[in-house]
Amino acid sequence: MNILEMGRDDILKLKSDKVEHPLTSHEVVHMAKTLGAFWSYDYEAAKLGRVGMHAMLKSGRHSDGFFVSKILLAHNNILQLVARQMATVLRRLEVFPDYVVGVPDGATKLGETIAHALGTSILRMEKAEGHMLLKIRPLQNKTILIVEDFCTRGTGFIEAVLAVARVQPYASFSPWNPVIINRGGLSSISVSAMGEFTILPLVEWRVNDWDPTECPLCQMGSVPIKPKATDENWRAITTSQA
């Protein structure tokens, strides 16, 4: 089985229990690119004058690459494959929380699927008016694991931890941040008053990101845009250098 040589049709036929080896970073990125879930800035096109657009991240930083888990995990076989492999990593480290919750909206289904794979309970978090909300009675002496799709600077993860802590003051957190791809190069995330959370990626794939005042793409005339804000934004950024 050579995933790197597979086209879209073959990737969508992949069975999670048939992929017996740990996925490599190149395999995950190949699947994401093939399924239209990964965009990267075309520096060669920029040399020809097509500077196009680049990504503005949730943290406010600018980047030359972007993954969209909504597109990648929309395919159930890929969702099952990724969740199965992430659950295997958690089992190997003996991470068995009482509850699993996925950071909305990108990791909602991922968190639920990992919970099923681990045989544990699900917490559901939602996003309303730009804020993360968790509605459930307080849990005493229970451990909660928060799952994310991709990690750059940990902005969404920190927000999720604080949102859970507000309504679950008696629960404890598993000190891990499981993600599909660690794209920011961090090894851990510090959350005020909550401690350190070790990033636990399925794979590592470094994507450049810069402070807006130092962004070389802005200096070239490229326009920053939030890729996930709307479907139109995603179409715009992926075709801006064509």
The percent range for strand residues is: 25-35%
| Low-confidence runs | none
CATH architecture of the largest domain: 3-Layer(aba) Sandwich
Query: How many alpha or pi helices?
Result: 9
Estimated structural class: alpha/beta
The CATH class label of the largest domain is Alpha Beta
What does this structure look like?
The mean pLDDT is 94. The protein has a four-stranded mixed β-sheet. The chain has a four-stranded parallel β-sheet with strand order 6-5-9-11. The protein folds into two domains: 3-70 and 208-239, no CATH class; 95-204, 3-Layer(aba) Sandwich (Rossmann fold). The protein is α/β, with parallel strands linked by helices and 242 residues long. Helices cover 32% and strands 25% of the residues. The protein has helices at residues 8-11, 25-34, 43-47, 69-72, 76-92, 108-118, 155-167, 216-219, 231-239; strands spanning 38-40, 53-56, 62-63, 65-67, 99-102, 121-122, 125-128, 131-134, 143-147, 150-151, 172-173, 176-182, 188-191, 195-204, 209-210, 223-225. The protein is globular, with a radius of gyration of 18 Å.
What is shown here, in short?
By secondary structure, the chain is of the alpha/beta class. The chain is built from nine helices and 16 strands.
